[in-house]
Amino acid sequence: MEATGIYGDPLALYLSDKGLIISVVNPVQIHAFGKAELLRNKTDKIDAKLIARYCASQHPPAWQPAPLCERQLLALVRHRNKLNEMFLTEENRLSVADEVVCDSHAKIITLLKQEIKDTELKIKKHIDDSPSLKKNKGLLESIPGIGERLSATLLAYIGDGSRFHHSGQVVAYAGLNPKLHESGQLKGRAHLSKQGSAELRKALYMPALAAISCNKVVKKQWEQLTARHKGGKVGVCAVMRKLLRLAYGVMKSGTLFNAEIPLAV
C-alpha cells in the first residue's frame, strides 16, 4: 500500500495485527514506476494493479509497526503541532477581526493556549513513563541545540533510530538530502528533495540556528561553509542535516554527546 501518513497508518496496523505481511511504499516510488510503464490513465483500478505489479517486481521490505509508546508519542506530537497551527491562525484572525467578534477569537485563543500547555505536559509525562523514550531523550538532549520540544519530535518520528541502517536514511526520511540535476553540459544546482517529513524539517530549523552558536561541532561546520560562501539557506540546511546525524549517532551508540569524539554513523 502507498504511504499516506495519518490516514494509512491505522489500516497498516490493523492488517499487521491480523497477521498479514504488508509493505508501505512511498507514493513517489509508485509514481516513478508507473511513468516507466508509460501509463497515461489514472483510476483507482489502474492504480491498484500498478501497486500490485510494483510489489511483484520490486519486492519492497515488509512493514513493521513502531512500538506502541512511539505511536502514541507521535499522535501527541502531531496533535500539539495542529493546536499550534490553530493558535497562530486565530491570532492572525484576531488582528484583523471586526470588534463584534474579537471576544470570540480571544476566548478561542485562551482555550488553545491551555490545550497546548496540557498537551505539552502529556508529552513530557508519556516520555518519562517509558524507560526507552526517557533514556533516548537524555541522549538527545545531551546535544547542544536539542531541547525538550525537538527531542520529543525526533523520538516521535524516528523512534530510537533502529529502523534506519545509517544516518543517510534518516536524512532522506526528513527530506533533507540534496537533489542534483545534471545532464550533459547543463550543471544544475543541488536543492533539497523535500520527499520526507515536513514536520521534522520544520522542527529542526530553529534548533539548527541555535546550535550554530552553542554546539562546537555545528559551529565548526558553519564556519567552514561560510568560508566557502555557502551560508544562508544552504548552510542552515547543512546544519539541520548535521544535527539530525548527531541525534541518530547518540541513539545508535547509546552514549552521551561528546564534541571531542566523532560519531560513526
From TrEMBL:
<dbReference type="GO" id="GO:0004803">
    <property type="term" value="F:transposase activity"/>
</dbReference>
<dbReference type="GO" id="GO:0003677">
    <property type="term" value="F:DNA binding"/>
</dbReference>
<dbReference type="Pfam" id="PF01548">
    <property type="entry name" value="DEDD_Tnp_IS110"/>
</dbReference>
<dbReference type="InterPro" id="IPR003346">
    <property type="entry name" value="Transposase_20"/>
</dbReference>
<feature type="domain" description="Transposase IS116/IS110/IS902 C-terminal">
    <location>
        <begin position="139"/>
        <end position="222"/>
    </location>
</feature>
<protein>
    <submittedName>
        <fullName>Transposase</fullName>
    </submittedName>
</protein>
<dbReference type="InterPro" id="IPR002525">
    <property type="entry name" value="Transp_IS110-like_N"/>
</dbReference>
<dbReference type="GO" id="GO:0006313">
    <property type="term" value="P:DNA transposition"/>
</dbReference>
<feature type="domain" description="Transposase IS110-like N-terminal">
    <location>
        <begin position="1"/>
        <end position="95"/>
    </location>
</feature>
<dbReference type="Pfam" id="PF02371">
    <property type="entry name" value="Transposase_20"/>
</dbReference>
<dbReference type="InterPro" id="IPR047650">
    <property type="entry name" value="Transpos_IS110"/>
</dbReference>
